[in-house]
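Late entry, fe (ii) ion complex.
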Amino acid sequence: MQRMIPVERLAREDRMVLMRARKAREIREEQNLDDRVLPFDEEALRARMHGIFCGEVQAMEAAGRTLFDFPDAPWEFQLDMARQVWDESRHTEIFEGLLAYMGAEPGDYVETEVLWRCTQAADPAARVAGINRGLEGLACDVFEQLIRIAQKNGDEVIERAVDYVLADEITHVRMGSNWLRKLTEGDPERLKRAQEFQESIDEVFSFRGTRRAIEDVRDGNENIITIAREARMLAGFSEEEIERLIAASRKSAAY
Ligand SMILES: [Fe+2]
Ligand SMILES: [Fe+2]
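Prediction complete; structure with ligand written out below:
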């Protein structure tokens, strides 16, 4: 089987439409649909749930590919990846359930390839830095915000379901923090390359201008994803790394 498979090779049911994020944005613009990334109303929330459902599917595939792509990695590393596949498959089911709860189903919206694109690193240390710390760190930010919105809406189903998933995501980020440290022990060059890969992913999301430090969000603007400081600290992010994320988001806000 081929390693590092491109996004076109991901198997999908006929009802799913997978396309580039840029193309999906262009089509939305052509149709005069705005590009809100966080839910204010029910339709935006439904679309967001679908996006997260697709993210969970791709996270499950990504952990499976990390397991497959690096057969020489330590056995405990492979066990962690196998456990993560299991966690992500449960998350997929939870978000499919939340979609049904909101009157939608997989395939009602397009799926974009952006998460899978972030998996293309040939070193397992970079892979866990990018996926577990970069992308799943972002998932912590998104989920924490979603919980707050559900609380505001008085929706206990969404609040509890997402809180349950967030607990798993914190362990995935922590797994990434541990393996990044272990795999690069005594090899500062390798650590640096892995961190740079992670930062390139952090920037993709910060530079779209949709992520900020909570103290930088005025007027309770829910269209902005805030950085989940507490969840990230629990997951092994250092103060310095969080400050770097905040600085990157401030830089993007200036554009
Ligand atoms: Fe997940
Ligand atoms: Fe995860």
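The chain has a mean pLDDT of 88. Will revisit in the morning.
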